Amino acid sequence: MNDQVRYWKPYVSPLDPCPPIRVKSFSTPPQLFIPFQPPNLPQFTPFEALKYGTLWPALYSPYGGPKQFRQEEGET
Amino acid sequence: MWVYEKKLQYPVRVSKCDPMMAKFLLEQYGGADGELAAALRYLNQRYSIPDKVIGLLTDIGTEEFAHLEMIATMVYKLTKDATPDQLRAAGLGDHYVAHDNALFYQNASGVPWTAAYIQAKGDPIADLYEDIAAEEKARATYQWLIDITDDVDLQDGLKYLREREIVHSLRFREAVEILKEKRDEKKYY
C-alpha cells in the first residue's frame, strides 16, 4: 500500500455508455504533509540522492504511472 | 440545473459618478482572476474531482456567478448614463466604439477574456491549489480596487466580495485536507 496514492469510487450510472472504471486514483506526494521541513532528516547515500533527485527519503515520491495505481488497487 | 433568484447576493450601491472606475472594475469581470474565470474554472473542474468535493466546487462556482452579477451591476451603473465624450475621458473610448454601453468580458486593459486564464489539470491536488491561488489573487485585486476609489458605498460592496474570497480560499484548503485523508481507512477514537 503506497501512502502517496489515494483512491476514490466515482458514481457509476446504469446508463453509462462505456464499461465503468470503478476506482480512480490520484497522487498525494510527500510535500503535502510537510508544512516546513524539519532539520536532520535521514539522508540517502550521495549515489541514491543523485538518482532520486532528493537527498531525503521523506521527500522522495516514486511515480509508476496509472499502471502502478491500478496494481495497488488490486492489492487492497 | 440552477434556480435563479432575481436579486443580488449583496446590495450594490455606487454613489460617485466615476466612469473610469468602471474600466478598473472590468478586471474582476473579464480578467484572468475575475469572477467569470472563477465560476467557469470551478464548475468545469467538478466533473473529474473526487466526489467528496464536487459539491464544494458547485457551490462556490455558483456563488462566483452571483459575484459576477454584482460587478456587472457596478459597471453598468457607472457607464449607463455616460456620454461618448465622458467615456472617452474615462479611457473607455475604444470600448465605446466596439460595444457602445454594453458590457463585455474583458479586463481593465481591454484584453478579451480567454479560456487560457483557467486550467483543469485532472489532478485533484493541482486543481485545488490553482483554485486557492485564484482566490488569493482575486482578494488582492479587490484590495487594489478598494484602494483606487474613494466611493465608500462602492467600497462597501467590494469589501464584501473580498471577504468571500477569503472564505472560499479556506474552503478549498479544507478540501485539500479532505483529499489527503485516507478515505477507506477505518478511524477509531
UniProtKB/TrEMBL annotation, chain A:
This is Spore coat associated protein CotJA. Pfam families: CotJA.
From TrEMBL, chain B:
Coiled coil: none annotated. Binds 1 Ca(2+) ion per subunit. Binds 2 manganese ions per subunit. It comes from the Bacteria. Mn(2+) binds at residues 35, 64, 67, 135, 168. Its cofactor is Ca(2+); Mn(2+). One of its GO terms (molecular function) is metal ion binding. Ca(2+) binds at residue 59. InterPro entries: Ferritin-like (IPR012347), Ferritin-like_SF (IPR009078), Mn_catalase (IPR007760), Mn_catalase_dom (IPR039377). The keyword Lipoprotein does not apply. Belongs to the manganese catalase family. This is Manganese catalase family protein.
